[in-house]
Design brief:
The complex is a heterodimer of chains A (122) and B (107). In chain A, the strands form 2 sheets. In chain A, strands 2, 4, 5, 6, 9, 10 and 11 form a 7-stranded mixed β-sheet that branches. Chain A has a 4-stranded antiparallel β-sheet with strand order 1-3-8-7, with no helix packed on it. Chain A is an all-beta fold. Chain A has no helices and 11 strands. In chain B, β5 (45-49) and β6 (53-54) form a beta hairpin. The model of chain B has no long low-confidence stretch (mean pLDDT 97). Helix content of chain B is 0%, strand content 50%. Classes of the chains: A mainly beta (122), B mainly beta (107).
């Protein structure tokens, strides 16, 4: 069974930093593109970032570019989102998601983790 | 960035109804369109990819169509478990962009 488990969310002050982790199991991690998607409470979905299978290509939403960094460790079946310079508008549930197809560059998100809440407030 | 719009933003329907949701892209995205269903408090679930391919395990009452800029998600006979919010997503290019969602509730 494919499983994705996020961790690292919490309450942080504006300007602070967090590192979100997503540990996966049930599939050959190194064969799949992985992504982060967020959702502010009561709002719609926003794609955040995607990383290629080897980690050599990364993509970011304009709203997070320069502040967020995605990375992966294929030896640990895990990928990460380093979040710096947090703003109130970054408050959201952050979901990690697996690409649907192995060896594909498409980021089709399936399945998703259960989400981890990041709250930015003083 | 490619802008995605959806219509309607919400709709009320009854069990058994045929429901159609439209998604429009601000430029040609070929068939690089995905549909998700999200229920309250849950992560989204992939329904349709490449505009019209049904994801494994998704009931056949769901179907997708369209290419270019205009796409449609159809539920042929609405079931109680289908009351949810539906989102489209373009993956033609980065940054990937979602539509604002369509909430389907009970009439």
């Amino acid at each position: 069974e494919v499983q994705l488990l996020e961790s690292g969310g919490g309450l942080v002050q504006p300007g602070g930093s967090l590192r979100l982790s997503c540990v996966v199991s049930g599939f050959t991690f190194s064969n799949y593109v992985m992504s982060w998607v967020r959702q502010a409470p009561g709002k719609g979905l926003e794609w955040v970032s995607t990383i290629s299978t080897r980690g050599d290509n990364t993509y970011y939403a304009d709203s997070v570019k320069g502040r967020f960094t995605i990375s992966r460790d294929n030896s640990k079946n895990a990928f990460y989102l380093q979040i710096n310079g947090l703003r109130a508008e970054d408050t959201a549930f952050y979901y990690c998601a697996k690409g649907l197809l192995a060896y594909s560059t498409n980021a089709w998100f399936d399945p998703w983790g259960q989400g981890t809440l990041v709250t930015v407030s003083s | 960035a490619i802008q995605m719009t959806q219509s309607p933003s919400s709709l009320s329907a009854s069990v058994g109804d045929r429901v159609t949701i439209t998604c429009r892209a601000s430029q040609d995205i070929r068939n690089d369109l995905i549909w998700y269903q999200q229920k309250p408090g849950k992560a989204p679930n992939l329904l349709i990819y490449a505009a019209s391919s049904l994801q494994s395990g998704v009931p056949a009452r769901f179907s997708g169509s369209g290419s270019g800029t205009d796409f449609t998600l159809t539920i042929s006979s609405l079931q109680p478990e289908d009351f949810a919010t539906y989102y489209c997503l373009q993956d033609y290019n980065y940054p990937l962009t979602f539509g604002p969602g369509t909430k389907v509730d009970i009439k």
